[in-house]
Specification:
It is rod-shaped, with a radius of gyration of 60 Å. Among the domains are: 150 residues, Beta-Lactamase, CATH 3.30.450.20; 100 residues, PAS domain (Beta-Lactamase), CATH 3.30.450.20. It is α+β, with helices and mostly antiparallel strands. The two termini are 68 Å apart. Helix 1 crosses helix 2, helix 1 packs antiparallel against helix 7 and helix 7 runs parallel beside helix 9. It has a five-stranded antiparallel sheet, sandwiched between helices. Strands 7-6-10-9-8 form a five-stranded antiparallel sheet, sandwiched between helices.
Length: 476
């Protein structure tokens, strides 16, 4: 029986240990990649959320600060107007007293009512106070019966409008006749000036003669003082914005509805917003995205050069303060928001590489611990097939308490049984071979003895033996 050819040896790249090591490496690498990507995305999301929350809080805080300062300015203006109104009432109060005195003189016959009215109208025309402010008098039809401006004297001015198109005389009549007295706001052109200025008028109805008497004072000085205070608050805001820190290189500024910079951090040059095409597009995008009411906050990403000449993507948060028509803007470079994620990615990549190397070494050691007894079983199987199996070769593997040890012990028993069985089988075959050989000899002898040739030889031998007896001397 020809010997079997030895089984081909297993190469390192096709061995089970190599495959386990590669599998461990692939799993660790995949885990590292997934973990890194997840960590980077999580950090970026967290940074975006944190920065967004911080910026939104700053928007709320700045909005509240502006609201407080605006309320202060508004309160100052309203208090100043209220004082101005009270002054007008105080100035106008003696007029009614004077008119009552003239009417009393007419009642007792000291003068006629017509003379008393003429005296009153002349008096009203000549009264001056404050900054050459005056009184005017109209009848029920809103014809000027006493007016210091000759171009209005004697004219019906019911359809007169101010610079904003308001029918001032109609409103004056309505207030005087329905309320008895009150105030009217309008804009009027000063004498010898071209531009209208805000003015507040006080009117009252002098019922005895059915006259509508009034006066007005310009309040642009109050508005100028309010604007002065607002400008001071804007300067404070500029200093405040300089101290606002919500992200590296991030800053806060304010635009008006035309896109002009109202407030910017001190030392921050925002001229590119108006002097560069990308800056103008950025401002247009901000105005378009700005909420129309207070409270909501919107965001947009724009590619613009806000520091230096290098254009980059900026994450912009926008809110609105409608009383002043201001657009509150905060800008943070996109790269700043992504930097923590990139840093974490490199750190995670380095850590993953270390873990991968440790895992590979551990995997190789573990695979060798698992593969060695498997290799011993494999060699034992090969030796068994080549009739040189030694059960002692599996003693080390058989001492293991895991499945591999159970496999080694089982194969050891099986191999021993196979070797013993083969030994007994060979002995039986040897004995059978001897028996078979003896039987073949007997069969061969029988065949020879019974062959025709052997029979002829046998007859010839018998004949020769007979002839020898006949020729023997004993026979003579």
């Amino acid at each position: 029986m020809p010997a079997e050819s030895p089984a081909p040896s297993t190469s390192r790249r096709t061995g089970l240990g190599y495959r386990i090591a590669v599998l461990i490496a692939v799993l660790l690498a995949a885990s590292a990649i997934v973990t890194t990507l997840f960590s980077v995305r999580a950090v970026q999301s967290a940074m975006y959320a944190q920065t967004t929350e911080s910026v939104e809080n700053i928007h709320v805080a700045v909005g509240e600060l502006i609201s407080v300062e605006y309320d202060n300015v508004t309160a100052f203006r309203e208090a100043s107007l209220e004082r101005r109104k009270k002054e007008l009432e105080s100035i106008a109060a003696p007029i009614s007293t004077s008119l009552d005195a003239l009417r009393a003189e007419a009642a007792v016959g000291q003068t006629t009512e017509a003379e008393a009215q003429a005296t009153a109208l002349e008096m009203l025309k000549t009264i001056r106070y404050g900054n050459k402010d005056y009184f005017f008098t109209y009848d029920r039809d809103m014809t000027a019966i006493s007016h210091p401006d000759a171009k209005f004297q004697g004219r019906n001015l019911i359809d007169l409008q101010d610079a904003d198109g308001k029918y001032v005389l109609r409103e004056i009549r309505d207030v005087a006749l329905s309320q008895g007295k009150g105030f009217v706001d309008y804009r009027w052109v000063r004498l010898n000036e071209d531009q209208p200025s805000p003015k507040i008028g006080y009117v009252f109805h002098y019922e005895p003669w059915d006259w509508i008497i009034g006066t007005g004072v310009y309040v642009d000085d109050i508005d100028a003082e309010a604007q002065k205070q607002l400008a001071a608050e804007q300067a404070k805001l500029s200093s405040t914005f300089d101290d606002v820190q919500f992200s590296q290189d991030g800053f806060f500024f304010i635009l008006d509805q035309t896109g002009s910079v109202v407030v910017s951090p001190q030392g921050r040059d925002l001229s590119p917003l108006a002097n560069t095409p990308s800056g103008q597009q950025y401002v247009d995008a901000i105005i378009a995205a700005a909420p129309t009411t207070d409270g909501p906050i919107t965001t947009l990403d724009s590619d613009v050069a806000l520091q230096g000449d290098q254009s980059e993507v900026w994450s912009t948060t926008i809110s609105t303060f409608t009383p002043l028509g201001w657009i509150l803007v905060s800008a943070v470079p996109e790269a700043v928001l992504e930097a923590p994620g990139r840093t974490l990615a490199w750190q995670q990549a380095g850590l993953s590489l270390i873990v991968l190397l440790i895992g590979l070494v551990s995997g190789l050691l573990l695979s060798r611990r698992i593969i060695r007894p498997v290799e011993a079983v494999t060699r034992a199987a090969r030796d068994l097939s080549e009739d040189r199996f030694d059960p002692a070769s599996l003693d080390a593997a058989a001492q293991r308490s895991d499945e591999v040890g159970e496999l080694a012990r089982t194969f050891q028993r099986m191999g021993t049984e196979i070797v013993e069985r083969e030994r007994r089988l060979r002995e039986q075959v040897a004995r059978l071979t001897v028996q078979i050989d003896r039987t073949k000899v007997e069969e061969a002898v029988s065949d020879i003895a019974e062959s025709e040739y052997f029979l002829r030889i046998k007859e010839r031998a018998e004949e020769l033996r007979w002839n020898r007896r006949e020729d023997s001397p004993t026979d003579e």
